[in-house]
Every structure is written in structure tokens, then in C-alpha cells.
Design brief:
With 1023 residues, the protein is α+β, with helices and mostly antiparallel strands. It has eight domains: 49 residues, no CATH class; 152 residues, tricorn interacting facor f3 domain (Immunoglobulin-like, Sandwich), CATH 2.60.40; 94 residues, Neutral Protease Domain 2 (Neutral Protease, domain 2); 127 residues, Neutral Protease Domain 2 (Neutral Protease, domain 2, Orthogonal Bundle); 77 residues, Sandwich (Immunoglobulin-like); 135 residues, Chitobiase, domain 2 (2-Layer Sandwich); 190 residues, Rossmann fold; 75 residues, PDZ domain (Pdz3 Domain, Roll). The chain is 31% helix and 28% strand. The protein contains 29 helices and 49 strands. The strands form eleven sheets. Strands 5-4-8-2-1-12-15-14 form an eight-stranded mixed β-sheet, with no helix packed on it. Strands 31-30-32-34-33-35-36 form a seven-stranded mixed β-sheet. β6 and β7 form a beta hairpin. α19 runs antiparallel to α20 and α26 crosses α27. The longest helix has 28 residues.
Length: 1023
Amino acid sequence: MPGSFGLYVSLIHSVAWTLESRRGKELKTMISRPCLVAAVLLFTALMAQTGRSAAPAEPVYDLAVSFDIPRSTIAGSVKSAVLRGERRLFRAGRLMIRAVEVNRQPVPFQLRGGELTFLSPESGALEIRYEGRFPPPPAVSSSRDTSFPNVIGAQGIFLTSIWYPQSAGLAIYRLKASLPRGYVAVSEAETIDMTQSAGGVAFDFQFPHPVDGLSLVASDRYQITRERFGDVELSAYFFPEERALAATYLAHARKYLQLYEKLLLPFPFKRFAIVENFLPTGLAMPTYTLLGRDVVQLPFIVETSLGHEVLHQWFGNQVYAGGKGNWTEGLTTYLADHLYAEQKGEGWSYRKQILLDYRNYLRDDTDFPLKDFTARYDAGSRSIGYGKAAMVFHMLRDMLGDEAFFGALKTVLREKAFQRVSWDDWQGAFERQSGTKLGWFFEQWLARKGLPELQMSGFAVSREAQGYALDLDLSQQGDIYRLDVPVKILYRSGGEKNLRIRLEEKSKHARIDLAEEPAEVVIDGNYDLARRLSASEAPPQIAGLIGADKPIVVLPARDGDYYQEVIAGWRARGSEVKSAEALSDADLRSAALVLLGGDQPVARRLYGKVETPPHGFSVTVKKNPRNPAKSVGIISARSRAEAEAAFGKVFHYGKYSQLAFENGRNVAATVESSERGMRQSLKDDPPTVEMTSLTKLSGVVEKLARKKIVYVGEQHDNFSHHQVQLEILRGLHGQSPKIAVGMEMFQKPSQAALDDYIAGTIDERTFLKRSEYFKRWDMDYHLYKPILDFARAQRLPVVALNLPREIVNQVATGGLDALSQEARREISSDLDYSDQEYRGRLKEIFSAHPEPQEKKFEFFYQAQILWDETMAESVDRFLKSHADYRMVVLTGAGHLQYGSGIPKRAFRRNGYDYAIVLSDAEVKSGVADFVVFPEPATAPTAPKLGVSLDIRDQRMRITSFGKESGAEKAGLKVDDTLISLDGQPVSVIEDVRIALFYKQSGEPVKVKARRGAEELEFDVKLR
């Protein structure tokens, strides 16, 4: 029945037209309440006859407001139509409701918890009159994550939240704002009428589309610049100081409108305005964007943020977020900020930064599913609602192709204009455009928190008849996702092969046929997957400190007054503050750290030595070598003024690794390099020895003569390695007699005994006793005797490099926290844990032991670093106090390989040139400067008594006998107590080892022992 339906439309239009008070025309024709009821009844009957259903029409509200700016107050009224018995609810916030009337008769209402409710006694015209006060706040933060309150003041008017009684849901609003003369106002509007009068100026804003609510901004300083883009009026409302920027902003706005009309649909409104705000905002409302003064002045805003706000006119202001979950920011981020990076060939970098932000700002206890995102309230929520959502749209586009992707966007814009659109609506649109069911996709990316974590392993390359084959394993941790993993294989020739591997299980083995020999595999090098980044892909960033859970701030060693603002700022973020002395080793591993002061002792405990930029204020962020998942920030200030001028700005530079400021102005910002994609080298170029360059050890010694320090490694029980050490020592001494010998085998308390022995004031037996050699080093002294004999003969200083064994063992068992304060004074204050390759090699060694445990490895690692640093410090101290000396350092090869143990740590302290010589080492790039392959040799060995001994109750008693024991054959028995050997008293096991050192196998030794109360003597043949 088209005729009847047309009658209904005509009647309803009549009712709506008559109920409104037409602005500017003073036309107030009223319709009777029975007529309104008849219209509604007629509509219901006609819909029943035609069998049609109609969506409920959005309500229409007429707002009229005026202002008392000196008092920061607003007075206004809201008018609409209401039906009898209808219960209305409005959000009123802090507004004062002066009256609620229906047909000019008061209606009882309730105002509770910021909500206004009433029941209409009859149908007719509703009017709500109200007042509100919105004084300027005492201070305004410039944080990107700040939401600003309503403001009415001398600087201007800013009203975006509840500044009028606001009904729930979409509605059509018509606004009349009365202001003092000279003011210019902006609100959502397709058309704006301005009327001047003696008392002021009135603005009529007409916006015919349903919206969630209205905003209003006004100022008496606006200067307007207007242009056109086709049928769209472009305008810029700028303050006089920034008006020169208007032309640039409008030119870029035209560029963005042209871009998005090509990608999407025509611009949805008749006008678009760029409005400057006295508050530091970045907001987009239908028909305009509101940018703060400090934002407008930034030179990069026209290239980034402006386009983002323009795109919001389609997504967010033409179609609205609906249901549960806000998709608008993610889609806008993807088609604005990300698109601009993509146009420069940097889309991969933008996507990587999204994933870095996710890694830095979110923890398991703060993460949540994307479907639950409604609005940004901190950096973590932004990483989900903007970043993760943008990645979801990228993966959709990557999977479906541009035609289906943009086809779905256009369909939603056409079919859902000025309606709420949910994630379910998007799923339906993409399914229709692609002909593909996507429930699995939206479930895994919207309903789950977190991101998948990929791992790769099992690499093997084989030669095939037609080329090569690559085997590899892909796996994922935690929840299982369905992923098409991008894989790039780089050929040794320089070419590449790209493919995707479907991974929808915990792990998968893949075999890839290749035309050429592969050199490297790269997984997701363009960051097309939303995934957790591997450690090698993640540089240290300031964001790692910002997003950390309760970082520990460590007070400076000096100039504490400089950092008061910094300390207060971190405390406000929930950080704990400690002194360096109070920081435990467990704290070093478990928390993100903010270290104050360029000479911070905790930095030396972690990195040995840290160079901070020579600027007024600097921030340097590093990975925590004790726990690479945590960040360490080192903040240095030259004065309190420098710190106060710069500190508040640091939180806007989250993606950087190092910052420097002078007088509050940023002068340097850098990001530490990191890998692009998960990478695995498949075949290293093998090391090659050029036979014509082979030389003898004497030739090596000639080259070593130019080095301040020569490190010569050993396998402790290999006598040929010690012979190499002695030959090098002799050769270098022959070239220059001022040479010292540093030895791992002796601990620092033995230094006096070493000095006396080298000086000839004590004999060897006394030296072995006083140095406790046999107690503190397990190797036969015959291995080292020739070296010590040469040093004694030539009077070469021998330096005890090592820590007392008790301290090393204590750390290996319980970590640095197990040390007493007295023991802590014995250890080096500079401990560099940053060599992760060294850590990896040590862990591989440790894992070969039975039942390796992570905690035990940490203690083992601490002990190893402490050992290395102590020896490096001992080398450094001697050479600095004996500037005319060089040193030959003799240690186990593990302390020298790749320079990781001692050499680089000594170099960090003094910068002295050095060389590393190893014996029988595997030839690998960088392992040493020289590798020697000596002829096997056997050292003399001390004979054995053939007993096991135990000291208890000041008795050294025999507990058992070895096989073919000469002592047992001589008549000694278990529980006999040893008294002397060859007349030399023995009270500890080391006394026995010293006595035996001077005997030969097959020789007799006279043993005196106590059995009960009787002393007995035995002649024992040694083996």
C-alpha cells in the first residue's frame, strides 16, 4: 500500500516539523497531543497492513545554551517529544537540573549518581532546563593518554563529555549556542548559521545524522581560513599565532580527502574543519578535528596525525563502533599512520614497532582480548586497541587481497552509514566479499588475549638430485593459532625464495625443495603476523621501562639533589626507590631498573663500565644481562635544572634506546639495532688456514712482543700446554726482561707467599705450605713447577689473580646474595654480564652436567663472571702500578676464548693491547689470535700413598685403602691416625701431598701412625 505509507511519512514529518522551534524563523505552530497519538497509532496500523517492520527512529533533541564565561557556567535547555507513560533516562553528570517539564507543566524527577530519570505523565513537548559549572583546571598535562574535562574559561570553551543532559543511544541533535560578541563556536554541523546581535552572537548548528552526542568548542581568538575541495567546504580555525600554518594544514587535508575518496567512498559530509584548541588534544568529531596548540606546532603532524583524524570522518564518524569492542582506532591506525609508512616502503618497520609496543607495554596481568577494547586509557590499552587491531586488519588484507578487503570497507560504509557497526558486522562483510568463512580468524584474534610465540629449530640442508632440500621445525608456545607463516630463504648466490607454511598445530616439520644452496632462513621478516617478537628482534627501549611492573629506582652515588624530579616522577608511577647498597642480587634479576647517575655503582655491577652521553640530561636503556626480558635505564643529569627541564618529555620517546637533552631540548635520539625477522644462518663460511702462513712458536713470540698483555690458555692437566706457556714466557723475557706472570692457579691471599718465594726468602716446601696450593688447586704441582722455577730464577713478579675459593664456591651455591658484607668487600665492584654469547657457551657447558637447573646455572654464571672480573681486575691493578711492565697471563682456555672471560674485561678497564694464544683449540673465527698445536708431553707425577684420609676431631685418620695399596701392605689399618711422613709432621691432607711431591714412584716413605694409644712406624713403598 504505497499510498498509505506515503500518508504516514507526510504525517510524521508534519508532527516533527511542528514540534520543533525553527531557528531564526520564530515559527511555533503547535500540534495537539491527540494528533500526535493518532499519528503513532496510524503508523502502527499501516505497518501491520503492509507486513513491514521498521527500525525505531532516533529521537530528535533541540539544545539551546548560553554562557557566563567569567563564572565558567553554562545554562541550557533540551527539548524533545515524549509519550505518555514513557520513562526517560539521561546522563547528567555534575549538571544542576533546574526543571523538567512536559507541555510546560513540572514533572517530578530523580537525580541520583549522575543520572536523571522521570516518568512522563502525558504525551507532548518535553523540556529540561539545566546549569553547569566547568572552571579551568589548575594545570593541564600534555600526556597523550590524558582525557580532558569540560572547560569554560578565558582561554576558551571545551565541551566534549556531559555538558547537557544526554540520552543513551544515537540521536539527532540541533544546537543553538549563544556567546559574547567576538566568539566563534564549532560543533558537529553540515551547516552553520551565525546571527549577530547587540547582546552577542548565536550559532545554529544543523547536523541531520544520528550521533552519540555533541561537542562544542569556542574562542574569541579564532581566525578562519576557508577553501573548497569539490563540494566540501574546508576550513581552519587557528589562533593568530598559528594562522600561518592554516594553508599547510588545508593543503594536506585536501591530499587526504583525495586519497581516501579513492580508497573508500566520497567524503561523507559537506564540510570539514581543522580547529585549534587551547588544550593539548587530538580528537576527531563528525565534520571537524580538534588539535591542541602544542600539537599543531609540531612539524610532523600534517604528515601523520592529521590524516588519522581525517580518516576518522569515515570510520568512527560515519559508521560508529557498536556492540562490544571498538574497532575504529585499529582500522584508522592501519589505513592512516601505517599506510603512510607503507607508502615510504617502511610498512614492515611500523608493524614491527606495533609488536615492540605490545612486548614493552603489556604483561599477562594487564593484557586483555581485543574484543574488550573500548577506549585507550594507557599505553598498554593503546597497544591492543590501536596496534593489535591494526595488525588484525593487515592480516585480513594480506589473506583476502585488496579487492575483497576494500570491497568490505566500502560495503560497510554504504550499508551502515550513521549506524553502529560491530566486529560481527565486519566478519560478515569480509566473509561476503571473500566467499570465505572467517569465524576461526576472528575468534583467535579477538577473543584471546596475548599473541602467538613462534620458535624454529631442526635445520638441516641436504643435497638432492635436482638441487637442495631444507628441513626445519616450526612450533608455537601457549594457545595454538592457525597461522600462515611467511618464510624467506636467502640463497648463497644472492637470490631468494618466498613461501608460506601453514602452522595450526603445536609443532610442524617442513621440508622445502630449493633450486640453489641456501644460506639463511628468515621467518616473518616483514612482520605480517601479529606475534611475540624474539629477543634478538627487540632492541632495548625506553618503553620497556615505562611498561614495566614497578621498576626499582636506584639512588645516585652523588648529586642526589639533581634527581629529585626524576625520583618523584617514578614514584608517582608506582616505582620502589632503593639505594645501591640495599639492592639485592635478586632485585637485579627480577625487576626493571632505573639507575640514577652516570657513575652509578649498580651499572658497574651489571656492565662493568657504562659511557653516558656528555649532555645536560641523558637516558640510556640496555637489556638487563641478568634477565634480558627486563630493561635497565641509566639516567644522568649535569644539574637539577637540566633534569627538571627534560624528564617529563622522556615518556614521549618510548621507542628509543638512547636520548640526550640540552636545556630541555632533545638533541639526540637513537634506537639500538636489532634483527629483522627471526633469522637462522644455515651454513657459515668455514675457517681456512693458509698453509704457507704457518709459523713456529718462536715466530709467534716475535709478534707477541708488541702486546702489553699476552694471554696463554691451557687445559689444566695437559703438560704440553704448560710447556707452550713456558716457551712464550721465555721468549718474551728474552726480548724484554720487565715482564710479570699472572696465574689463575693462585688466589689473592697467596700473594705474600708468592712474593717471598720469588724473592728467594722461603723454600719451595714452605711456599707450597703457605700458599695452600694443594688445598686451593687440584692439579699436580709438577705441571706448573717449571714455570715457577723460571720466574724464581729470573725474579719475575708472579701475580695471584684469583679470588679465594671459598667465595667462588659460595656464589656458585647460593649466588651473590649469599655473601657476607665482609666477603662483598673482597669482590670486584665492576661485573659485566652483557656478553650473551659467553653466557650461551657457559650454559651449554653447564647443561651437559646431570640435572641442570636454571637457578643453579644463574649461580654458576655469577661465579664465573666474578672469577673473570676478579682476574681482570688483578691484571689491571698490577699493570697500572707497574707501568713499565708487560704481563703473561696463564689461565684455563675457557677464560680466554673469544676474549669473553678476562681479556675484554681487562681491556674495558685500561685499553691495553693484548693477544690470546690457545693450544689445541678448535679453529674458529675470533676464538684467539694464535692457536698452537704442541707435541704431546707427559709431566712427572707425584706418587700415591694408597689411602683415603679424613680429618675429624683434629685427627687425620685413614678411612680406606686403594687397590694394591702399599700402605695397606705395610700394615696400616683403617682408623689409624697419620703423624708424620719421613719425619715431617702432617696435620692436614695438604701436608701429605707436599711430602709426596718430593718422592718418586717405587721409593719408600717412613710413615708414623697412632693406633689407639700406641705410636707405630711403617715403611711404605709408594706407587
